[in-house]
Design goal:
Distance between the termini: 34 Å
Number of strands: 33
Number of helices: 2
Structural class: mainly beta
Strand content: over 45%
Shape: globular
Oligomer: single chain
């Protein structure tokens, strides 16, 4: 049973591509955060942002936001118990006691709204039971890994039920930080830490349920998550050795004598994965998030009214050694403050005596504020910047969706959402020792405003209760806005139709997609075999591309330069050939290509990489109850996931020289991950 369409329904009867896993699956795989969900659904790829462990990069059907800056919007909506978690920073956190996770593929603009261009991920927690009970779990592993996780339900007291849950995880670092091994690097600095890639997190959740009447339920949730650890190791993979005058770290280049000899990075690059590093920066990643949510559910005469009120606060900081060496070549820090308030009102119900018309209507309000200080230091402080950016967002929406059973077998679904949003920006950039380059306060430029209508229409035909086919059209959009990281003081030629100076006075437009999908859902052999499949064809326009520039400050330009066509096929299978064995598998194919990509007035669509779009992904899992007796039971669990090769940045595929920014330099070769677990459970303790 899932709530993908804002009401409880059988997963197999929901006419959209949804994958869902329950608490037993999550517990057996030890999944408590979204970064462990990589093999749950086809054409879904969940990464952590480079050098960070608490920033997610969720790619569904080829749509992804690769820039983790707090002013950017993700392409996939993340929700916990109906509360929108708006930013990628701090989106990887632990939840100790999950009931299920739902992954919705394809645009969900009607029921979920902005920034669900690619899909949505719903985290649903277990609610208080009102009966005394719970669990505690302890774990120990290599690198001194240890974890304590638990949950406690308290007995019901009057109208109140209370549940407490939490988790503590710690682990030593994978990377040992050592002193500089090269005497030739005379400007090398001493190390400031002994290790990197460690883990140190605490999470806690308190849930209170009040039931003042039989038809009214109030749920309050407080959640807290705190990470205080070292960043992932940014290993220096390669420096250019092409003899190009721009290759300052190439001993064969004439520029080496001016910079490379003082900062000989060529000594430190390695193509093999390292377990030791020599670094000089003060390294840390800290993420502290708190959330308050109050959900009121009132059943009134066949109509269920729901109010979801939420406030979330985030403090997120990091310090990175970008050059991967003990030389003071490139280091940046980010100190982020963020808070958001949201209010949603819903009404769900059915009309007519046979309930053949079901509806969901709602109103949504959202407001947030984000700010980041971003000091940057290059070449021993010869070039250093004071930098910062921030934004305000205010958004309103109204939506409705109706399911009408035209016959017992044929169901028509139609929905529409109206969105309105406003954004402003501030940007400060100072080259220390030279002067202020950009100083735009809040209100210094006109707000970026957007209005959007997101319709969807679905036809479903159920041949039997266990076999149905559907066809769906849906529109989605990802918010536009301002590039807070810009260092452009002139006109950006990559923004068509923008004649105003700088990116700050010319906001980039929302990205939009028209999605067409057909699929079927089926169960066979007394529901021992489930087979679902979907084919989709997405037409994207005004794709938001963040292109990193290596000129001046560590900054990016944002372009609405591209239109694209993304097609794919997804197949999911779950089988239970015998009562003690459950098998699951999925395979997906993705074909992404630019139809148009305008840069400096030229269409370069045949020479740009499409990021995070592996052509093939696949997974296979098995859960076998191998033994059962008076002593308990033994389950053997195995999972294999495969991701094909993919590009990580939308850079050129072919460049005039090898020293230019080329997408092949940062191409991932793909990966296969195997997880094996043996569980001994249900041990009688008397």
């Amino acid at each position: 049973i899932v709530t993908a369409q804002k009401r409880s329904e059988r997963l197999q009867e929901v006419p959209i591509a949804v994958s869902a896993v329950g608490s037993e699956f999550l517990q057996s795989r030890d999944i408590s955060s979204i970064d462990r969900l990589g093999s749950v659904a086809p054409n879904v790829k969940i990464e952590r942002a480079p050098s960070n462990k608490t920033i997610s990069q969720i790619s569904i059907r080829g749509s992804v936001t690769i820039n983790p800056a707090i002013t950017w919007e993700p392409a996939v909506g993340l929700y916990m118990d109906g509360v929108y978690i708006a930013k990628a920073q701090g989106s990887i956190f632990d939840v100790a006691d999950l009931e299920r996770i739902e992954v919705l593929r394809g645009p969900q603009g009607t029921l979920y709204g902005r920034n669900t261009l690619a899909g949505a991920v719903n985290l649903i927690t277990k609610k208080p039971t009102g009966e005394l009970g719970g669990f505690i779990e302890g774990s120990y592993g290599d690198y001194n890994y240890h974890k304590i996780k638990g949950s406690l339900n308290l007995p019901k007291y009057g109208i109140f039920s209370v549940k407490l849950s939490g988790q503590i995880q710690k682990r030593d670092g994978f990377i040992d930080v050592v002193d500089n091994p090269y005497p030739a690097a005379i400007l090398a600095n001493p190390r400031k830490t002994d290790e990197q890639n460690d883990l140190d997190s605490h999470s806690f959740m308190a849930q209170v349920r009040a039931e003042p009447t039989d038809n009214l339920t109030l749920d309050y949730t407080f959640d807290y998550s705190n990470f205080d650890q070292k960043t992932d190791y940014a290993q220096l993979y390669r420096v250019n050795r092409n003899g190009d005058p721009r290759d300052i770290f190439d001993p064969a280049s004439p520029s080496y004598a001016f910079a490379g000899a003082f900062f000989p990075l060529n000594l430190y690059d390695r193509k093999d994965r390292q377990d030791k590093a020599s670094l000089d920066a003060n390294l840390f990643e800290r993420s502290k998030a708190t959330g308050h949510a109050l959900t009121a559910t009132w059943d009134v005469g066949g109509v269920t009214l729901k109010s979801i009120t939420a406030y979330r606060n985030l403090r997120w900081d990091d310090s990175l050694d970008l050059d991967g060496s003990p030389l003071d070549v490139a280091a940046t820090q980010r100190f982020t403050k963020y808070h958001a308030f949201s209010q949603e009102l819903q009404a769900t119900g059915a009309l007519f005596d046979d309930d053949r018309l079901k509806y969901v209507v709602g109103l949504f309000y959202f407001k947030d504020k984000a700010e980041t200080d971003n000091p940057q230091r290059f070449f021993g402080g010869a070039t250093s910047f004071r930098a910062g950016y921030g934004s305000h967002t205010e958004a309103y929406a109204a939506y409705a969706q109706v399911d009408y059973n035209l016959t017992e077998k044929l169901t028509l679904t139609g929905g529409l959402r109206y969105n309105h949003e406003e954004k402003d920006i501030k940007r400060y950039l100072e080259l220390i020792g030279t002067g202020v380059l950009i100083d735009v306060p809040y209100g210094g430029v006109p707000d970026a405003t957007a209005n959007n209508l997101s319709p969807q229409f679905t036809v479903k035909y159920a041949f039997t209760r266990d076999f149905n086919v559907y066809a769906r059209y849906a529109k989605g959009f990802k918010s536009g806005g301002f590039n807070g990281e810009t260092n452009i003081a002139g006109t950006d030629p990559g923004s068509p139709g923008c004649a105003a100076p700088a990116e700050l006075t010319c906001p980039y437009k929302p990205e939009k997609v028209d999605s067409y999908e057909i699929g079927f859902k089926s169960q066979w052999f007394d529901r021992r075999l489930t087979l679902n499949s979907a084919f989709f064809w997405d037409e994207h326009k005004d794709i938001q591309l963040s292109i990193f520039t290596a000129t001046g400050a560590a900054a990016s330009v944002v372009k609405n330069a591209a239109q694209a066509q993304i097609r794919g096929v997804e197949v999911e299978v779950t089988a239970r050939p015998i009562d003690t064995l459950t098998l699951n598998a999925s395979v997906a194919y993705l074909d992404a290509e630019y139809k148009k990509y305008i840069e400096a007035g030229v269409d370069v669509s045949n020479n740009r990489a499409f990021p995070h779009t592996p052509e093939y992904t696949a997974s296979f899992g098995a859960d076998w109850e191998a033994l059962r007796g008076d002593w308990g039971k033994l389950n053997l669990v195995g999972d294999v996931s495969y991701v094909d090769e993919y590009y990580t940045y939308p850079y050129p595929l072919r460049t005039p020289t090898l020293s230019d920014q080329n997408a092949n330099n940062t191409k991932s070769p793909g990966r296969t991950i195997v997880n094996l677990t043996a569980n001994v459970t249900d041990i009688p303790l008397g």
